[in-house]
Amino acid sequence: MTSRSARRRQYGSAAFVAATFACAFAALAVFFVGPSLVFCAVVAGACALCLERVRRVKIRKLEQKLQTASRVRMNTIFVNGVRAGEIDEADYIAVKLDAALDPRNYVRQFGAIAKLAAKCVAVTAVVIPLGLFWWLIFGTYFAPEATTANLGSIYHLLIQANNPSDLYHLLASVAEAVLNIGATATLTSFFALVFHRESSGGISSFRKCVHRRLRQMANCAADGDVHVEPGNASQDAQSVFLDRTRLSR
């Protein structure tokens, strides 16, 4: 292993652990605030280390596959459903391994997740007040007695707060409840969007890196969905033999 490869592994591990820790800590800190932040940090660190272990196992498997990969078996590259070129099995595994070891992909992945989370927070900040407003409108129109009772209970709680300390605790409880509702809505929308975009390949920086590299190797300037179809070893060997025979003639 060269020093450059070792540095890439170290940078990749550091970027992955830092990004995973930040995401896990941010998700846990929403529900466990105050003194529980230490607990959030410990759990987030444990999650980051466990996922780092899984990542290293996957990289080790790719390296083992690369050592036994065939240069004869050719995989067909399709871009937007159109055949664009071929790549042998060893080069294909090398491309995936290079993407997994590139620390820039982890930074891009974290940026994509952070951007998606910011969008979910912005949507939640708009949707929850609108939802409460329309709930009040429809509740007043269709069930005025129940709505009045709910608002009356809140009013009585405010009246019973005789001193600023009681009022502070009451408002803190209301704010915590609103925060929990917002956090639940944000995480639900976040995981739904992640699942949707991941199924369509729109959030994975590693998949984008592999697809971009495959398009470059196939000399394809078109951008779009990339699909690799594995070839047949016997047919590939026969085609290589025929090509060599033609060249010898």
Overview of this protein structure:
- The chain has 249 residues and is mainly alpha-helical.
- The chain folds into two domains: 1-68, no CATH class; 74-248, no CATH class.
- The protein is 79% helix and 7% strand.
- It is built from eight helices and three strands.
- The protein has a three-stranded antiparallel sheet with strand order 2-1-3.
- Helix 1 runs antiparallel to helix 2, helix 1 packs parallel to helix 4 and helix 4 (103-142) packs across helix 6 (164-199).
- The chain is elongated.
- 12% of the residues are buried.
Radius of gyration: 27 Å
Query: How far is it from the N-terminal to the C-terminal residue, by CA?
Result: 42 Å
Q: For the largest beta sheet, what order do the strands appear in spatially?
A: 2-1-3
Number of helices: 8
Task: Let me know the number of strands.
Answer: 3
Q: Which outline best applies?
A: elongated
Helicity, as a percent range: over 70%
Largest sheet: 3 strands, antiparallel
Number of structural units classed as domains:
2
Low-confidence region ranges: 234-249
